[in-house]
Predict the 3D structure of the following.
Amino acid sequence: MPKGYWVTIYRKISDPEKLKAYAELAPKATAPFGCKYLARGTAASAYEAGLKDRIVISEFPSVERARAAYECEGYTHALTALGDGAERDVRIVEGLE
């Protein structure tokens, strides 16, 4: 079964304190779904139409587990803590293997 990935791009961070609160809650909420953070930080390089925004890549055992983690109560609580503290683009994609 192919793995699932969250690809999260932070377009704008307007409240670092809200982001900090989210960052404390999100890993606890996603861990039961097998989440492993593969990359987190500002892009080292950006090409073509890319921007050097903050990016987070999270791996899950499957797309189903990635979706379930995003929709779970604990992660909803983390998103509430983030509120309007950041503008993000979150996508769930299926791995090739």
